[in-house]
Amino acid sequence: MYYQFFGLSEAPFSIAVNPRYLYMSPRHREALAHLLYGVGAGGGFILLTGEVGTGKTTINRCLLEQLPGSADVAIVLNPALDARDLLATVCEELGIDVAGESPGLKALTDSLHRFLLDNHRRGRKTVLMIDEAQHLDFAVLEQIRLLTNLETNEEKLLHIILIGQPELAEKLARPELRQLNQRITARFNLGPLSVTETSAYIRHRLQVAGLPPGRELFSPSLLGAVHRQSRGIPRLINLLCDRMLLGAYGKNQPRLDRGLLRQAAREALGEDPRGQSHRRWLTLFAAGAMVLVVLAFWLALPDGNESTYLAGEENSKLAASSPDPMDGDGLESLESLGRDKTANDNVEGIQTTEATGPGALEESRRELPATTFRDSPMTLAEEAWRLSPAEGAALLAELYGLKTTTPVSGLCELPLPTDLRCTTGEVQSWEQLLADGRPALLGLVDERRFESRALFVGVEGELAVLGSERGLQRVPLEQVATQWTGTFWQLWRRPLGVDRVLALGDEGGDVRQVAALFALLDGQDEPLASNRFNTRLETRVRLFQQEKNLAADGVLGEQTLRALALAAGIDVDRTQAQAFFNGNEGKGS
Fold first, then answer.
1. Which of 256, 385, 524, 549 can bridge 466 by disulfide, Cβ–Cβ 3.0-4.6 Å?
2. For residues 442 and 486, what is the distance between their CA atoms, to the nearest angstrom?
3. pTM surpassing 0.90?
4. pLDDT 10s digits, 4-63
5. Residues facing 73 on adjacent strands
6. Which three-class secondary structure string do you get for 370-419?
7. Tens digit of pLDDT for each residue in 206-242?
8. DSSP secondary structure string, 535-567?
């Protein structure tokens, strides 16, 4: 077979669902987190939608693997049934004995209710999963809704997961199904993969299939072309890549190219990328031609006073009443507009991400104050981005809303409130700083061995974006790198009341605070846990750790808490830091 030709142990792009080839992109992990949250959030409906081939079945498999052993699951794969046959299928899946050879709807419903009550008394959960749910009739959906009426004071006794294509969400939005739609406790629409995720997905499957280390079958540009042709849909990616490998094998060609992609698109999808490319170029050509026509018309207009071209008496009056920017009144008007805008910019400042959540989360919100150094115009000196240790510490502290009165030589010597922490460390690359997401104070030593600081807030191409008292400065990375020792300092804001490592079984208000943060992050009304760190919260922590490339041990340590604070909008990220300094960018230069 062709896979042996490429040094593979098996075909890597089969469309069959194989757990060994599981690739969980960030959006897949987020979808799984929503489903797990819904199962543990007191019952009701959970909705997962997505286009054909986006990986809904993969999510279902992962969900079934992570459900506790105390859960009974009924899976309906063919929902093209009436209400009675659907209930009969559910009872059969759950092993419920129903009296009579052909029981009616009432007998099936009563038997299911007795099973649910008995399961609840035994501490077991009952989950009903319906795939391809967009095919359910309105009457069947209403019957399913009625099944959720059986409940205790704390929770509903049946968790129902509806999985289908995007038209399922459109169907549930119909007025006649508003009661069911209002009972959905968690919903997620699974979109296609991005370009980066598509590349990672292809490489992942090749590695699992045994591709020898150091061998590349797809060039970066070809990976981008596969993404465009497949639109990021995993099933289409599999079809295209499988056909490309088969075509290369037939031609005894060790490396893949765009010609093989065009051939694969014709054979597997009935499409030709060149046709799409030609259509794009025709569209761009038409748009360009229209721009040229408008430009030619504008250039052909005769010179003269602007009011000549205003149609009608009212427009002429309007033009006459408008201030001339060159006379005194007009100049004063423009200056006042500029002053108003500057004043508004300085007053608004920048705020941490705003969101509402349960209880004590509001105490964690912090509004960054208007800066004190922006209001006085200063001449931009050469290398204004270079700061003394005391200036750097004061500037980063001010970004976090702190006013320093006594100069200190180091950031971590500042007196900090209880929710702020100072950390220092040493890294070898810009990527390690960028991965954290926060601004950082860099330790510099110049050619004369004098120590200084730079406030790093991002990278733009080959430029480092640095904060200074005169706004943002963009400096060649090479210039900063030659002076950077690799040392950095950071401040980070932790959630109020969370000051220890949390793990499964821990209890306290800090557990409730962390669960509330995850509920805020997931857009859910109810947290996964109250005062006790349970298995549902542990699973959510693991998923979050995987998403942030942390050790997925389910333990909430400092690194996980730092990432959670940033993701939930409690902490200051680089985008907010840039906005903080951006108000004075370029002034005085």
1. 385
2. 7
3. no
4. 888 888 888 888 777 778 888 887 888 888 888 777 766 678 889 988 888 888 888 888
5. 127
6. CCCCCCCCCCCCCCCCCECHHHHHHHHHHHCCCCCCCCCCCHHHCCCCCC
7. 988 888 877 888 888 899 899 999 989 999 999 999 9
8. HHHHHHHHHHHHHTTS--SS-B-HHHHHHHHHH
